[in-house]
Fold this protein.
Amino acid sequence: MDHPLNLTVDGQEHTLAVDPRTTLLDALRDRLGVMSPKKGCDHGQCGACTVLVDGRRLNSCLALALSHDAAAVTTSDGLATDGELSPLHRAFLEQDAFQCGYCTPGQVCSAAGMLQEAADDAPSVVTEDLEAPVDLTDEEIRERMSGNLCRCGAYVNIVAAVSQAAEESR
Amino acid sequence: MNPFDYIRTTDTADAVAVLTERPDAVFLAGGTNLVDHLKLGVTEPGLVVDINGLDLTDIEVLDDSGLRIGAMVRNSDAAADMRVRRDYPMLSRALLSGASGQLRNAASMGGNLLQRTRCVYFQDTSTPCNKREPGSGCSAIGGYTRYHAILGASQDCVATHPSDMAVALAALDATVVVLGPHGERRIPVDELHRLPGEQPERDTILEHGELITALELPPPRAGRSTYRKIRDRASYAFALVSVAATVDVDDSGPKPVIREAAIALGGVAHKPWRARAAEAVLRGAEPNEKTFLQAADAELAAAEPLEGNRFKVQMARGAITTVLTELTGGPESKLDDTTEDAHE
Ligand SMILES: Cc1cc2nc3c(=O)[nH]c(=O)nc-3n(C[C@H](O)[C@H](O)[C@H](O)COP(=O)(O)OP(=O)(O)OC[C@H]3O[C@@H](n4cnc5c(N)ncnc54)[C@H](O)[C@@H]3O)c2cc1C
Ligand code: SF4
Ligand code: FES
Ligand code: FES
């Protein structure tokens, strides 16, 4: 039986009815035509489906849409304002941080969520002093972005892009 | 995916009552394990009860100065909580070594404890597996066993429990608070998960309908602690072997003596493996390499590795001794995960 679902996606409100089996990723892509998040593995193993839900990065392929009724979802598209790329988007362009681009919307959302986590001083497993403020070294960026795979292997430039965006946001 | 019904509940008693009435119902927390299993056909419930609306998201200091962490606290929030970072760094680091940033934002404390094995045959419904389908056989025995058990396995199942967090909780002597049809009960985390025996389909001693409401940590222990994870890639991979350890050394006498030690191993058994034989060797002994090797060997004497995971015995031996060496290396040794000695 279908259940009602309210979602605000990139600032736009939607009301729809979904079968409980629908994942957030499928609701976005198949039901709402929001194609920014990608389906890579569909099992939480690649990060291509990463979106921000109420500001936190999540794998939308492992979330039931109904669990996120009334949530505000931001995709990589939604990080741009009035057609203007965000500093994070520009950093990806300037650092040549992609090849085919399939993983990129997930990388961008993951980076956006991660930069906020670091700004909130959330530690990572490579943070030496768990109680100290976070210093976003390349090692920290690699660890914090490890949930996003890139089949083209653009990792080196992705780290550079995220590092640039982190510098610019300071 | 098989069709199922869905309800969302905001009341713990109600959540328990619904499951008690419906043998085919399951709880849904972060969904990072359950939704995967729904897709794979590993689990085919008739009803999914969403517990994301339950008011189980607090972290509170207890009267005895321990810490109570609600079952719906997200893994990332627990790891970033300053009290956890300061007083239970081993738990913070175990949580942070699991999965990815995105997954930890979704994963709950209760769901992490009750996540199921990553045995590839368990996840593949086209192969026999006693855990998924009792009596069908175990495809891992004689198959791919790199991630399988070397301790406490049975003829029927050689799977490991994949949680990093649970290994730290075992070393910390945490308590799991559970609400069931007959009220609340409290279970030492070491007694929550079972060894497979002849019933590998049962991961834990929980009965259908029992809801984990919180984890309770005893007051912070004296001494130093850490969590070390060895895996096939640097991040975003399950443990081959992991070690959670706390050691408290008495330096007041002519020779240092180990006052207390608690060790748990991950990646080696069907449950977080509390290394009590190793602890017994350490208690009262002088902290040196010989003691550490004796302790590791005492624990691993019972190891029965499989064709594909013989390396784990040596890996666990090395991990235990390395961690103990670091934890007892004096203040000048480079250590991230120390809780300063709380002894007066
Ligand atoms: C690609 C990938 C990599 C991963 N790597 C790691 C890793 O390296 N280390 C690690 O430890 N974990 C790892 N994980 C697993 C992850 O930590 C778990 O999936 C997560 O912790 C489960 O929590 P959840 O809230 O999402 O649980 P759910 O998926 O919602 O639930 C899991 C199970 O617990 C039950 N349940 C949930 N909450 C309760 C409750 N309060 N009371 C009773 N029953 C409950 C559910 O019914 C279900 O059976 C990984 C997962 C993925 C997908
Ligand atoms: S090890 Fe356990 S989970 Fe894996 S196939 Fe055998 S019975 Fe199934
Ligand atoms: S599609 Fe969601 S993690 Fe791969
Ligand atoms: S740019 Fe092609 S997968 Fe990352």
